[in-house]
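User: Could you check the structure of this?
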Amino acid sequence: MVNQASMTSKVAEAAFFLQFHLKITQSKIILIYHKRLSMELYTLKRQFNGYKKGTQFYLITESEFIGVKEFVLRTKDLTKSITINESELLKNFIFIKEIFFIK
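Assistant: Sure, the predicted structure tokens are below.
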């Protein structure tokens, strides 16, 4: 019998390893495929966008278009995600650690 918590963990790991991010711009729909061998874990320095100080987030993907960097973060429990720019990341988040996936 498979443990439900173990199965959820495996699904979460797979979701991190193969990430699809859909970005809709003014006149284009861009599908970004991003394969990561590691994930970065961040925590909030202060309350931000309705999230409490200390909430942990995984950095899912980052992109840059004409010098503007954009980051997609997902809560550690994988229920919610936010998109922020570089200044918001630097101002409101602290890098905790990098988690590597072993093939």
